[in-house]
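Key result, reporting period 2: structure in, sequence out.
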């Protein structure tokens, strides 16, 4: 049966091709090379997507890493449910159901009819397990099922079950089982509630069991000018989180997050967080923070943040205090951005200063400089970059910069050259850095994207749908609400109005580049949509542009060598380049740059955990068991999360009698 499944999906794919309404492909090739380093990761992503009569969408996705197959996925799902019935099926590198969102090589299927659904998944973990210097790939598999139901469109409840088989080499368990319930509801469009309760049953090799409960709760009250949120998560001692790693420390995380928008230009927010670690209560700590931001008239944008950390066992002992102030302003082509950050911990004080100045000429050329200073007591490090950037006919874009400074007591000097070529369905981005630091070094990163349409014969068409994307998946599905009577414009002159299903259509268009915009008069202010989209219309082409109304967020930070193990990036602590940073249980990831900086953007509303899946050999996290939850919502959507790493200590061998 397992061997016949890919053949069955291939026949389904061939049948889909015979009924194609619109389809396209996209190929992305990227590579990063660092001199005298193992960070050389060529990768290619191939996507083919087709839609059939606007009711079914099928995707084929393949990733090649180092020219070898790394990920594969075939999926088909309904995008226009009929009579409240929707379904989905996927095979390859899948994700199981939330909250046990595991990456598996296997099968996942689900359907939902009005208020009740059923889904199941099965597969093996694709990534190998390393234990005591040996590599194991014989994970014996995971399977599970979930039953979602709702009473109204403002609530969803799911019962779920999962079973995992383990191997004695890398896990103390024979198997793990999880039973639970997850609930989400919205009351009066003001109160948002989420909670999950899971019972874990773990069978050990010496004929004993470990049973425990884990739970999480999140509630938030939101209005236009005020919001308050309460979060609580509980993981007991010896919990695994349905992974093969057992934690010998339990944790309870409690947060209280109020915010107040006094006017459109002035806002206040705060956070109280308690990190209760057991049984080592001496590591438990509290965090108290406050932030104020303002942007009034011609005055610059100003924000101030204060963070205070103290231990729970003795609240008179301060763990650290952080201050941050930033000022930015754009005026008549000039741009100014400055921030100052200070962190005080014990007898150490860390200071960071960043300054960016630039000017944009009428011909779109830009000249600027930015600098960064780090100093802790008598230790100072700094970096300067002077750059010039220009573009030609919106096709070519260049940037050349000179970089110099001092880090970890060593002086460096170098330059970088970036260029971007973008036209029609072709985009190429390249970055080259050459610098001298105890010897010449260089790095090269490239990204090539090719996309194109394979549509049927449709002469000069632009069509799509406008809808409220409730689950923030950029796809119109059963719970999303179409928006009718919205004016859509081409080149600010050709008009169309969305129908009851949120659809619009422009036909018999001449080959040209068109500006697509929509009227925002009937769209709530807290939903985000692009101001305009440029569409290149050609003969015998159908451009389908769906416009979901969503709120997006971003997470940025550094991965750095934490020399003093305080979890804060000090001036003499350099970043780690080429490290993969990703959102846990998702396919969203990025790489750190030459300074250890990363950025993950375009995040829909939800709760995220940022993680670093692998570190340089011989290194570990300073706080390996600390989990920071990031909650992206319409109140707050920009976050900073840093990862400090340090060299591993040699293990101490213990003999149990």
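The corresponding designed sequence is given below.
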């Amino acid at each position: 049966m397992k061997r016949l499944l890919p053949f069955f999906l291939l026949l389904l794919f061939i049948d889909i091709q015979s009924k194609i309404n619109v389809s396209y492909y996209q190929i992305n090739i990227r590579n990063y090379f660092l001199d005298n380093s193992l960070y050389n990761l060529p990768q290619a992503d191939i996507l083919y997507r087709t839609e059939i009569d606007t009711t079914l969408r099928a995707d084929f996705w393949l990733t090649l890493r180092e020219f070898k197959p790394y990920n594969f996925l075939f999926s088909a799902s309904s995008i226009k449910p009929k009579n409240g019935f929707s379904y989905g099926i996927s095979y390859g590198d899948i994700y199981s159901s939330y909250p046990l969102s595991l990456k598996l090589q296997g099968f996942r299927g689900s359907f939902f009819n009005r208020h009740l659904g059923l889904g199941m998944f099965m597969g093996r973990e694709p990534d190998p397990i390393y234990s005591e210097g040996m590599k194991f790939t014989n994970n014996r598999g995971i399977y599970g099922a979930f039953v979602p139901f709702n009473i109204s469109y403002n609530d969803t409840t799911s019962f779920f079950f999962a079973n995992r088989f383990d191997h004695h080499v890398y896990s103390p368990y024979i198997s793990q089982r999880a039973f639970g319930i997850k609930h989400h509801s919205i009351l009066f469009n003001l109160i948002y509630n989420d909670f999950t309760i899971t019972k874990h049953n773990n069978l050990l090799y010496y004929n004993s069991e470990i049973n425990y409960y884990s739970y999480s709760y999140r509630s938030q009250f939101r209005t236009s000018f005020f919001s308050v949120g309460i979060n609580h998560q509980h993981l007991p001692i010896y919990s695994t989180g349905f992974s093969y790693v057992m934690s010998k420390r339990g944790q309870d995380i409690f947060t209280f997050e109020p915010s107040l928008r006094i006017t459109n230009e002035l806002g206040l927010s705060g956070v109280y967080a308690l990190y209760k670690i057991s049984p080592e209560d001496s590591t438990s700590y509290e965090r108290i923070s406050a932030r104020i931001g303002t942007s009034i008239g011609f005055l610059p944008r100003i924000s101030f943040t204060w963070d205070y950390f103290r231990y729970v066992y003795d609240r008179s002992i301060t763990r650290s205090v952080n201050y941050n102030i930033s000022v930015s302003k754009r005026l008549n082509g000039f741009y100014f951005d400055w921030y100052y950050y200070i962190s005080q911990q014990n007898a150490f004080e860390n200071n960071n200063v960043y300054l960016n100045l630039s000017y944009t000429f009428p011909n779109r050329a830009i000249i600027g400089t930015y600098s960064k200073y780090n100093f802790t007591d008598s230790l100072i490090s700094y970096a300067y970059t002077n750059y010039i950037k220009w573009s030609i006919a919106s096709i070519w874009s260049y940037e050349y910069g000179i970089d110099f400074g001092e880090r970890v007591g060593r002086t460096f000097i170098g330059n970088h050259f970036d260029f971007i070529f973008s036209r029609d369905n072709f985009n190429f981005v390249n970055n080259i850095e050459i610098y001298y630091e105890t010897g010449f070094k260089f790095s090269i990163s490239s990204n090539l994207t090719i996309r194109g349409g394979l549509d049927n014969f449709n002469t000069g068409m632009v069509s799509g749908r406008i809808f409220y994307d409730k689950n923030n998946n950029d796809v119109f599905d059963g719970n999303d609400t179409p928006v009718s009577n919205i004016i859509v414009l081409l080149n600010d002159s050709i008009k169309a109005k969305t129908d009851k299903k949120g659809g619009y259509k422009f036909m018999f268009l001449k080959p040209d580049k068109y500006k697509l915009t929509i009227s925002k008069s009937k769209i709530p202010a807290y939903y985000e949509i692009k101001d305009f989209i440029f569409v290149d219309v050609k003969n015998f082409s159908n451009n389908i542009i769906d416009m979901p109304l969503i709120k997006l967020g971003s997470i940025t930070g550094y991965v750095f060598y934490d020399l003093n193990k305080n979890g804060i990036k000090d001036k003499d602590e350099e970043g780690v380049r080429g490290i993969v940073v990703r959102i846990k249980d998702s396919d969203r990831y990025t790489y750190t740059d030459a300074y250890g900086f990363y950025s993950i953007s375009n995040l829909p509303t939800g709760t995220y955990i940022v993680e670093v899946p692998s570190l340089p050999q011989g290194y570990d996290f300073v706080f390996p068991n600390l989990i920071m939850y990031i909650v992206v919502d319409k109140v707050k959507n920009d976050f900073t999360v840093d990862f400090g790493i340090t060299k591993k200590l040699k293990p101490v061998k213990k003999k149990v009698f």
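Helices lie at 4-17. The longest helix spans residues 4-17. This case is discussed further under Risks and Mitigation.
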